[in-house]
Amino acid sequence: MERLLASLRATAEPTRLRLLALAGRGAFCVSEFTEILGQSQPRLSRHLKLLCDCGLLDRVREGANVWFTLPHSESGALARDLIARLPDSDPVLDADRRQAARVLAERARVATESFRRQGEDWDEMRALELPAAAVEAALLELVAEHVPGKLLDIGTGTGRVLELLAPRVSLGIGVDASKAMLALARARLARPGLGHCSVRLADMYRLPFPDAAFDLAVMQMVLHYAEDPSGALAEVARVLRPAGRLIVIDLAQHGREELLTRLAHRWPGFSDEAMHRLLSGARMQPGLPVVVDGPLAIRLWPATAAAHERAAQPRELVM
């Protein structure tokens, strides 16, 4: 009861309600809140600390940046309920929404221009002229509408998989090792209907989640960059619940040696036999692969996680 009372007291202030309403649109940093609300950073930092202390906001650090977002927990449910009760026609909240849209658009522009300046192939499907639409259609066929609860998108990149599967999951989290990629993903996810999806900085070999935390995991165009594919798959298997599903989307084995140097691929795709061995070695049951033809053939390899044999290990994050 004390925690509930603390949460209610924390929200009994206009600025803090405005901050909660903005967090319902996606993750923001303090400087963005300052720009949207037109208040000083020290003042907003105090409000944000109160909201974090009572569990209504999550504080996620990425290097020098700190992002504030709604938690995926009981406190997060309370925050969403409070947001849902805010009036749609309030002029202050309307002004905040307009300012937030401008800030998010600027964030996306800066992130995209940064990638263009650096000459990075951040959209690899497009860089390789692969049939992205056909791959997405095949993924949707593999993901039944009623099955997944919690989704983990590993190597989320621009967040497209989260956006695609958002209507079919109750919670979506994307992880990536690139801060610039995460900036693009956050811009994509700052749209209506995607508030249950978020992204964060993480290493795929050491995912900051407890055992058996997810119902579905997707690895799209990730494994051919992995120095240790078997280690990455074993870590995915750890965070999947028993009978949870993994879908690996990657290049079939090919002879395009220039990709190993031009795009820094570690592996020239994977044969069905090699992927079967990798998935089986991670104690997952491989399913039948789906083939998508194109300039380079793509496979979707589904697999089912086995029961965990060891006790859950403590990890940093609580979702």
Explain what the structure shows.
With 319 residues, this protein is α/β, with parallel strands linked by helices. The chain is built from 13 helices and 10 strands. It has helices at residues 2-11, 14-23, 30-37, 41-53, 74-84, 91-118, 124-127, 132-142, 160-165, 179-189, 229-239, 258-262, 272-281, and strands at residues 58-62, 65-69, 150-154, 171-176, 197-201, 214-220, 240-251, 284-286, 290-292, 298-305. The strands form 2 sheets. Strands 3, 4, 5, 6, 7, 8, 9 and 10 form an 8-stranded mixed sheet that branches. A hairpin with a 2-residue loop joins β1 and β2. The longest helix has 28 residues, at 91-118. The radius of gyration is 21 Å and the shape is elongated. The two termini are 22 Å apart. Mean pLDDT is 86; it is low at 311-319.
Provide the descriptors you would attach to this structure in a database record.
319 residues, alpha/beta, eight-stranded mixed β-sheet, two-stranded antiparallel sheet, 13 helices, 10 strands, disordered C terminus
Low-confidence stretches: 311-319
Tell me the Rg in angstroms: 21 Å
Order of helices and strands: HHHHEEHHHHEHEHEEHEHHEEE
What distance separates the N and C termini?
A: 22 Å
What is the count of β-strands?
10
Reported for the largest beta sheet, the result is: 8 strands, mixed
Quote the average pLDDT: 86
SS strand fraction: 15-25%
Q: Treating each run of at least 4 consecutive H or I residues as one helix, how many helices?
A: 13
Shape: elongated
- Determine the oligomeric state from the structure: single chain
Helical percent range? Answer: 40-55%
The structure class reads alpha/beta
